[in-house]
Write a structure and sequence with these properties.
The protein is mainly α. The protein has 16 helices and no strands.
């Protein structure tokens, strides 16, 4: 990359974000808070009346909550994989998008497990999972894996933010309150950009990047095994581990593109987030769409060809009762990104973003098809069963809590922009310095 093409932002370029808050920002935050409060009302109804207010019954014991859990956890692991890979392999175009991947990881990882709690009828028994864990249980594996991943990702995020925290601490031209100045001083932990500090920080970041890549793959494989170690038709599959990992990175790439587009428009980052970044992440999304298509084809082909009785019932249920959902999730949402990104004349920032939206929606419905229709086909014959015990339909409570989770996701991203610059300034400087290929010593503070 030509160093003259790399434009490095200055901290004061984002001074307006830190120094003042517009009325539009307050209105947006108010809307998000109201949606979250509505979700709390729905949660109160569920706690008072029980799971009868949801669509979950004796047969379909999992519903939209588990779909959301699997989806958000996949997005978080995708952020870890993409962010860690970009940093570890020193991709020269990583600078403007690295921070989005880092925040995507942590925020999704905080929200995903909340949906598991919504499935638990007796929250008072939750501490028993930690007090008396059974290592034979995949649920215990998942708790250990998610906790490890959260700790690792928080450490990684803090490491990559240290230098920008130091900038915020020492920038005299930035008019911020004293408590924020003290906060940045605490978070920077005495970093001054000394050569020895730079060397240690770079080494530590590379080690953590490699670790979170490995942890993300392991954790999402464990999540897939919760399904595949059962004998339930539709879940009893040996390829669920890699299938879930590919789907996770695929959905995460789509969400990352959507966030890039929103930040680019809201904060006027056109000079930093260019078409090249959208095309680069778009190519990643296209390749992942091809891998996802292969795994999806393999999964359904083997079930159809084997002609096991329960597998045939599940496939007939999918093709008849969920035909349009199946068509969108496993055809349209895969082919659209491949066509738009694969054909050069269709590539534009808008078209790639639209393809990302379609792929993200398709991945959510794909998770829905994995969870709900499978549970609607009982593994054991059940006599005199009411139809509403077998079929599932989400209620206003479930959709309200889902909307509340999305609102919390947006709120945490909104608040993050008030604490750190939307662009990783320090990484941009590193890329500029490496591309210029000079031996001139770099001074950290201007």
């Amino acid at each position: 990359m030509n160093p003259t093409e790399i434009k490095v932002p200055k901290l004061l370029d984002f001074a307006s974000i830190f120094e003042s808050t517009s009325r539009r920002w307050y209105l947006w935050v108010t809307l998000l808070v109201l949606l979250i409060l509505w979700a709390f009302y729905a949660l109160a109804m569920q706690i008072m009346h029980g799971h009868i207010v949801t669509g979950m019954r004796d047969n379909v014991v999992w519903g939209i909550y588990i779909v959301n859990f699997v989806f958000f956890m996949g997005v978080s692991y995708a952020g870890a994989l993409i962010g860690g890979s970009l940093l570890l392999f020193q991709a020269k175009w990583r600078g403007p998008v690295l921070r989005f991947a880092e925040l995507l990881t942590i925020i999704s990882l905080l929200i995903g497990p909340l949906f598991i709690l919504l499935c638990i009828g007796r929250l008072d028994r939750l501490p028993y999972l930690l007090m008396y864990p059974r290592i034979q249980s995949p649920i215990t594996w998942d708790v250990i894996a998610i906790s490890t991943d959260l700790i690792g990702c928080v450490i990684f995020l803090w490491l990559v933010l240290i230098r920008d925290f130091a900038r915020l601490r020492d920038e005299a031209g930035l008019k911020i309150s004293k408590w924020r100045r003290k906060l940045y001083t605490f978070l920077a932990l005495g970093y001054r950009g000394l050569p020895e500090q730079e060397k240690r920080l770079k080494l530590t970041k590379n080690i953590m990047a490699a670790m979170i890549i490995a942890i993300a793959i392991i954790v999402y494989s464990v999540l897939a095994w919760i399904f595949s170690v059962t004998l339930q038709p539709g879940w009893d599959s040996t390829i669920f581990g890699p299938y879930f990992v590919i789907a996770a990175v695929y959905s995460g790439a789509g969400v990352l593109i959507i966030i890039m587009w929103l930040y680019r428009k809201i904060f006027h980052l056109e000079a930093y987030i260019t078409k090249k970044h959208f095309v680069s992440i778009g190519v990643v999304m296209m390749v992942l769409a091809m891998f996802f298509a292969y795994f999806t084809f393999s999964e359904y082909l083997t079930k159809w060809y084997g002609q096991k009785e329960m597998d045939s019932k599940l496939l007939n249920h999918l093709f008849n009762d969920y035909y349009y959902t199946f068509l969108f999730a496993n055809y349209i949402s895969i082919l659209v990104p491949i066509v738009i990104v694969g054909i050069r004349k269709f590539r534009s920032i808008t078209s790639i973003t639209i393809a990302a939206v379609i792929s993200v929606l398709g991945l959510w419905f794909n998770r829905y098809l994995i969870v709900v229709p499978t549970l609607e086909i009982p593994f054991l014959p059940i006599q005199d069963t009411r139809p509403d015990w077998i079929s599932y339909s989400g209620t206003w409570v479930e959709y309200s809590l889902t909307l509340g989770g999305i609102a919390l996701f947006c709120l945490l991203f909104t608040l993050a922009t008030k604490l750190v610059p939307p662009i990783d300034i320090s990484e941009m400087e590193d890329i500029k310095s490496a591309s210029s290929d000079t031996n001139t010593p770099k001074t950290y503070f201007g």
